[in-house]
């Protein structure tokens, strides 16, 4: 839900309120109380004026029992929003389930060269923390073993994306998240962003992803982990 309050748009403000109260109807007094003392949007007198203006402009409907409902057009908008909201929640649940299965499969599969190599770069629990990372937050700019180059970004909740750059010719791995800088870099270990990136690379091209890990592991003393 977008919690920015559309104060200058009466119809959008009413929809904003109804998305929160999530009721087909509400009494006039309950609506006044909710807007003033639960949502803190307006003082009671201003709320009364707002509701009366909304009724006059056909943005709200009131019956003889002082029950307030949405008119048909706004109710349709609310229903469409609820449908899209349910789809988004379901998609998030499915994506999370997919990430959990991928982590479980990684932990259980002990025969894969890729898994063996990646585990060498992980501290206990790191792979489990990748579940919180969405594939959609990664941007892969380059993935080419012949050139020896991986370039990617992770956006997440930060204004500036985290960068990941791996160059096998110069033997440099650059990454700038706080966990990598303060805990992983010195011991040449991967943080959750690096672990997740390689799991994504495995899905695209397991041979190349394995070759990159092998190149780093076999020459680890020559590699510089930097930020």
In short:
By secondary structure, the protein is of the alpha+beta class. The chain has nine helices and eight strands.
Outline the structure in words.
There is one protein chain. This protein has 227 residues and is an alpha+beta fold. It has two domains: 1-108, Arc Repressor Mutant, subunit A (Orthogonal Bundle); 112-226, no CATH class. Helix content is 52%, strand content 15%. The chain contains nine helices and eight strands. It has helices at 10-21, 28-38, 44-56, 72-108, 113-119, 126-129, 178-184, 192-204, 206-218; strands spanning 25-27, 61-62, 67-69, 138-144, 149-154, 162-167, 172-175, 224-226. Strands 4-5-6-7-8 form a five-stranded mixed β-sheet, with helices on one face. It has a three-stranded antiparallel β-sheet with strand order 1-3-2. The model has no long low-confidence stretch (mean pLDDT 92).
> What does the radius of gyration come to?
26 Å
Number of domains: 2
Question: What average pLDDT do the residues reach?
Answer: 92
Oligomeric state of the chains? single chain
Cross-sheet strand order for the largest sheet: 4-5-6-7-8
Please work out how many helical segments DSSP would assign.
9
Structural class: alpha+beta
Order of helices and strands: HEHHEEHHHEEEEHHHE
Per the principal axes of the C-alpha atoms, what is the gross shape? elongated
- The number of E-state strands comes to 8
Tell me the helix content: 40-55%
Distance between the termini: 35 Å
DSSP strand (E) fraction? 5-15%
Low-pLDDT stretches are: none
Largest sheet: 5 strands, mixed
